[in-house]
Input
Amino acid sequence: MTSSAPNRPAGHALVEALIAQGADTVFGVPGESFLAALDGFYEHRDRIRFIACRHEGGASYMAEAQGKLTGRPGLCFVTRGPGASNAAIGVHTAFQDSTPMILFIGQVASSQRDREAFQEVDYRQMFGPGTLGFAKWAAEVHDPDRLPEYIGRAFHVAMQGRPGPVVLALPEDMLAAATSAPVLDRIEPALAAPAPAALTRLRDLLGAAERPFVIAGGSGWTADACESLERFAEGWQLPVGCAFRFHDVFDNRHPNYAGDVGIGINPKLAARIRDADLIAAIGPRLGEMTTGGYELLTPPKARQRLVHIHAGADELGRVYAPDLAINSSMACAAPALATLAPPATLRWAGWTASAHADYEANLVPTPVAPLDMAEVVRCIDRHVPADTIFTNGAGNFAGWLSRFHRFAGLRHAGRTHLAPTSGAMGYGVPAAVAASLLEPGRTVVNLAGDGDFLMTGQEFATAIAHGAGQGAGKLVSIVVDNGTYGTIRMHQERDYPGRVSGSDLGNPDFAALARAYGWWAGERVETTAAFEPALVAALAAGRPALIHLKLDADVSTSRTTLAAIRKKAEARRADENASAKPPKP
Ligand SMILES: Cc1ncc(C[n+]2csc(CCOP(=O)(O)OP(=O)(O)O)c2C)c(N)n1
Output
């Protein structure tokens, strides 16, 4: 504990506490409810910056991306009712993605509490653990002298076990009151480690397997832990797939890499996971997207033997009854796994080689004209450094990135993928802006859908205002404009063929919009050949750049078209109708 200036406003003490935790950047939208904290940011402006965003949804996404990128809680400040409501999407994303984050909300004065005062909300009800899916912990601080206690708990809770978001409401009078509260030293999370007996059992289970498969993912990975995972996989010759949105946990070029286990999974990989006799899930939640809608592994007792290693005790046995559950952080589990000596002979070297061969074969696209998204991704990869950070929100457009981009792997390049496990649209632009501000030396590429982009595109203004993408690292946003909420259209064609409802979009001129924000933008790209010069110009622009791609809506995914989906659905309907006919007399 460091003692600090006596009798400064609690708002200043709060900012000092964040600095002591290693923070140099917070994201937010100001409100009159936390003026004393804003004044604290002014007081300490040489050590911490307040990035004023254009919407609390953008700010909370940026803080979530900060948590993903740094492993420390991302920090977001918003005002009461309206601000908190807008910020909810980032809290939900941080919850589903197990990302450490703290949302600070300016609250009505204590003297007005419980009157439904202006914009008053009870954030413990709104975000508290009882809501299942928002904050891990929500609290309101009433005593300025207890700020260190609340901040300390917030950092611990956000980072420990299964990481996640914490909400702290700060009544405006509390923030303005004087306190001599000291400042806590930097908090490191307590890390659970595997018990020796569990490791022995794991070794036995692996030794008895014929077709083992590792699914790696979740949060809490460090470069060292990823390197240990790689050594474990090499020693035991295990095939490794990355869980949904955690594609960068394992080097995609490694000979043991088998592909990503998420939306749009390689069908051969899905078959392999079904056929495996042992699944070692190291780090990920076994959520709907990573389990193919709970079908690759069927709950509660999967057909495959299941070893589940997770940092959160509550995740173990939550849906699946594992044969072995290990409650451990990745920082402790991975080095322990790397020390497990494999037997002299392993039975599954061919199985692992064919898993990687399936992955390589899946990288070969079916050519599409006039604009081939697979070639777009390949072209980006030729022109940007290996440590480029890719961001995306939700939509079919992201499928081309998932399938064709080869992530360098966290052990080599740090986190290179910021994307929402929660499937939240609008995540990609704010995440890219945050990444660019936090790591100005790295290139950042955002891939966005036209629907996805316009949910948070206003954060282009934040990028310009705070100098993102204007240094060594480039910032490029690529908008895939197909004139539709394509994912929903795809589902409609599957379930209600030909009946397009609520999914068409009327779009602006994205390049003109970008220029209005001060971004560079060239001609709209409509062909594969036009993309490379557009990308080269964007990377040389010296400021953030947008590339507007026009894609035919029929090109639904990297595997199929809307027309094909509709035809199949109509044929299925015809069959169903025929079999429903009463027998002829
Ligand atoms: C915030 C939010 N709202 C709605 C959805 C439901 N949703 C999922 S994908 C999608 C359409 C995405 O459209 P677009 O960004 O244009 O990408 P496309 O699917 O066309 O490639 C919608 C509406 C969501 N996931 N998140």
Summary: Residues 53 and 262 are 31 Å apart (CA to CA). The chain is about 40% helix and 15% strand. The mean pLDDT is 96.
